[in-house]
Automatic annotation (TrEMBL):
The keyword DNA-binding applies. One of its GO terms (molecular function) is DNA binding. Residues 215-303 form the Tyr recombinase domain. This is Tyrosine-type recombinase/integrase. Keywords: DNA recombination, DNA-binding. It comes from Enterocloster clostridioformis. InterPro entries: DNA_brk_join_enz, Integrase-like_cat_sf, Integrase_catalytic, Integrase_recombinase_N. The keyword DNA-binding applies. Coiled coil: none annotated. One of its GO terms (biological process) is DNA recombination. The lineage of its organism: Bacteria, Bacillati, Bacillota, Clostridia, Lachnospirales.
Amino acid sequence: MQNDISVAALCLNLEQKLMEVWNNELTLERYRKVLAEFTVFAGNSSYSQSLGADFLIARFTERGGLVSTDEHSRKEETYFRCMRMLAEYHNFGIIHRRNDFFGEIVWPGPFRQCTEGFFEAVIKEGLSYGYVTRSRMIIHDLLLFLDARGIHTPDKISVRDNDEFIKSFYGLSPKGIETKLCTLRRYYRHLYLQGYIRVPLAERLPKASIQGRMAFPTVWGQDEIKKIEDSAERISPAGKRSYAMVLLAARLGLRIGDIRNLKLHDIDWTKKQISIIRHKTQKALLLPLPEEVGWAVIDYLKN
């Protein structure tokens, strides 16, 4: 997370990053236009996600509305997509390229301060990009549900409203229900502690007991892992890559996301070490580089 950075500097950093990873010049030009407009709008201000929402509201006069994809033209989508990308780059240092479009969410006026404060808090706690993204969609669904029931301020949420929203989880997997309940519990607790609601709704949520219904995790033994390694095809470039990935997972215990994001500069060949920022936790990890793994990576790079 890049704290206290000016909008101009952040937009410039993002533009440079986009030039490194994006090949479509037309798309780049569209994003440059949005970033330039936002820079003028912000002046000398430091970046905040709230300022980005102000820009979108001013640009499209969506006063206190929830923005959804079917309400916007392709040109407007570019603005919302660009501001979402800027927020993700500021908060997590990554650019998430999507083919779909969920849109930037401009929270309803009475819910805006408390909801933006909630997400600022979870980001500062170091929770992952995936968690924050899923949580945004869950809270988005909650506020749409409340809006349909005529509830437009946090203090009007009742236990009954809460119970009715939970009924909409029917048919989801146990894990899916648990994820939604955990997000709601954290959100309601934030609202209560910050004085936005008087009823401790977090304590009224049911507990998701899923242990008895979930399968035991499958663990491969040493013999099975050895068979997988021995059966790997190591002649073609794709086979060499797959073999190196298998060794990185089997020998170092790296997750697939960390293997996929591994860069050449993450490997210190002199010290025989791998240094990465873990995708799930965004925490630094330093691991030794076994000789067999190192040679597998070199074999892939050479071919």
